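Build the 3D complex.
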Amino acid sequence: MRPRLLGRLARHAVLIAGAAVVVVPFLWMFTTSLQTRAETYTNDSILPTSWHWENYVTAWQAAPFGQYYLNSLVMATGIVAGHLVLDALAAYAFARLDFPLKRALFTVLLAALMVPTFVTIIPAYSLVASFGWIDSYAGLIVPRLADVFGIILLRQYFSTIPVELEEAARIDGCSRLGIFWRIVVPLARPAFATLAIFSFLFAWNDFLWPLLVTNSDDLRTIQIGLSAFVGRYGTSWNYLMAGTLTATVPSIVVFMIFQRALVRGIAMTGVKD
Amino acid sequence: MHRTPLRLAAVGVVAGLALAGCTAGPAPDAPVEVTVWHYWDGTNADTFDAMVDEFNASHDDIVVSTSNVPNADFLTKLRASATSKTLPDVAIGDLVWVPQIAQIGTLADLSGMLPADVLSDINPALTAFGTIGGEQVSVPVSANNLGYLYNKTLFEEAGLDPNDPPTTWEELKADGAKIVAATGKQAYELFTQAGDNGEGLTWNFQVNLWQAGGEFLTADNSAAAFNTPAGRTALQYWVDLIDSGISKVGAWGEFGSGNAASATDGSWMVGIWAPDPPFDFGSGTAPYPEDGTPATNLGGEQAMVFENSDEKAAAAAEFLSWFLEPEQVLSWSETTGMLPVTNSIATGDEYLSWVDENQPLLRPYVEQMAVAHARPNTPLYPAISLAFAKEIEKALAGEVSVDDALANAESAVNAVIAKG
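Done.
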């Protein structure tokens, strides 16, 4: 009895410590978001000492955040969709089709993964500018519709799906695209869920590219809006934290939605859909 | 989840493509559009936007639009835009950026474009700063400077008159010793660490350097000029303050959090703190040596016009001329708490009586505009500032002597200049 109790205590202690590591920064953000500006500089308590809920309203009204939210959602949705569709098609080709220079092309893709974003950002900007896409949704979305990481992730997953399932479908007269849509996509749901989460977080949190290609409030995204609280003459930590907490909500929602698909997908692996 | 996310996503792609922007060209007799990028936030941004609306309402032939670009990435965005002819017509940025921005794009020479009486009324240190290669590449639109801020409560605890801040180095040392003895707290916070850009330390130090009669760089910005007796006086002052316990080596922010009794800080802090003071605070001019001269360091924003087209540059210049008219300078200064850039307003009764009535803490800062210096206007300045601070912080930490630190800083700064 005692060793088991001790074991359970130890396990809980570890779990509580782990949870604290995750929760404490959020708690601190929450506490800070409710303080006055002066308190954020003079008060270092992590427990709430004042409850200025109106900070959330002030932060929200400091800029057209409703529009920024909408823009971030449109951009993130477009990018996630692009990744799910285009990455998947490319990944399937690399996993299953035979075509000339397949290995070479795949190596080129792998090499592209190693090129840092900062190297390509100016050429990408010039290209987008030459299309007249500065300050447009197209400028925000199109250059990032496909990404190498997604192609590699999905290709690796597709390769693990038994070829027999696809051959069976073929015997039944299914076309290539039909196989992809009816067999591969349902079986690869956990991989799609993973990619969707990664892509959404990338798009939602991205700052530099949206900043470069947009000028007007009609197209600005949430992260650019938040950066306005970090002013040249000082940071409004309370509003920044209120705004940041609000901006975190969609990420958590997306994670919860796709996490269920991810878990269910894994539980059903190998079961014919 | 079935396939809903996929389907939704596909709809998103199509929608995203459909929304791709199409902008029509201007009609032949349409007003000239002028775009302005600035980094102001909060009250400053709101005030600027309201003034731009006022300008647009009173000018049929020009439409000014503004865009806020976060200050940390302002230069990055300008650099990207310069590669593709997508620069704004006007950039309003920190004064120290002007020489760098002059390299990013082609700036219009404003000397012939703004009325002479407007230019001659501007604080000469600010117009001199904006003169590069004989051309007026920038004009100031907003100003601030460094003064002395102090915690009145801690002054009282030390038995000092909370309405009589020190005005000289000697007084600051005497008051400081009393504060340390009575409160055990740091009496005067110095910017002792270079950090990753150095400028906090450097521009604070320049105030004391100028007060001691020194210069930071030679007049043509071609070499370090601070390794002189004046430089030694200034650095020795800092080292003495630290040795006597009046100041401490550490991260900046102790004064703001109430743990230090005073600091050299900017006029903008008055505007930020006044609505919600973290403690009862007062202001004074930057203390200077009894045998020296008063001086302070200028900050603020300068406006630059990119030569996108003659028509746009002319319209941009017209907007700036309007912004620098007495009425606008007055309304900008009163609403934002920034300091006026023109002498007529800074020394005029109307503004000064507004200050005394509404924001008396600004008074010492306004008076200092007459003794304000600007930092060297070279594009190498950020690198110079960091190189300087990295050597000087060693003297403050007690690792090297004052003489050695100045000599090392001199060679480091000259190396940056030689490298170009």
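The longest helix of chain B spans residues 402-419.
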